Amino acid sequence: MKSDNGQSDSQQLYHRLNAMVENMPPFPESVHQVMTLSSDINCSPKDLVSVIERDPVLTMKILKMVNSAFFSLSRQVASVQHALVYLGMNTVKNLAVSIATVDALPRNSIAELPMSSFLTHSLATAAVAQHLARDSLHIRDASDHFVAGLLHDFGKVVFVQFEPTTYAKILHMAQQSRQPLAQVEVEQMGVSSADVGGMLAENWHLPAALVECIRTHGGCGEQSSDLMVTVAAANTVVKAMKLGDSGNPVVGQFPDFIRRRLQADLDAVMEQMHDLPDEVELMQSAVRG
User: Fold this and answer.
1) Is 70 exceeded by the pLDDT of residue 214?
2) CATH class, range 9-288
């Protein structure tokens, strides 16, 4: 089917979505450099400090978070160098990405998906994904799992920002019908928020594995990467624990392949994460400032 200007419906949809993604706040270059450097085993802390300190706003926000109740350090940290000493390179990376994420959230919200509840869900998913990567899959550097969990639902932010009325109706329909949100998104808009999140991650020039995880975590399967498995499992855990809101009324259970990979079922992981609500509350206070 073609419109009056000769474009197919799919072409029109692509251009509309592309315009939305292009108008989202850019991912800060300093945070890009932090992500790149921290993933390099040969990176020196001095190089990372240099990148962060060239961005005074990022420096100020990192130090504010480091000195927050979330970390409860015994002494005040006055420099990025000291933050790296106390917390390590990968934690500082997570702080930088968390700051960029919060800065990208729209100021306006919709009642069907308040951004404060969305942020709670995202932070909780990040924390659980990192926990599963470390404790169940024995991945020593699990910071990528934190970042993937934090950003996994960010396509919904694009819809809230640029299609608030339409997306509010979609969220309401999903709640009323108890259908998976992605199914209702595709039926009503022709695309899922995960697809849009993948587009946004590409536009932000994020690593390919992270882009793929954001785009396809909802269809996690037997051959999926560890990154996708931890995010998919974490998403289920957080929904089951009713921490924040992702807009999706369907919780579900771990599929058999996730139980085998993690060697745990949903109830067992929820038991392991009994301190999560308090942790997320502190995290949210820290990133919100």
Assistant:
1) yes
2) mainly alpha
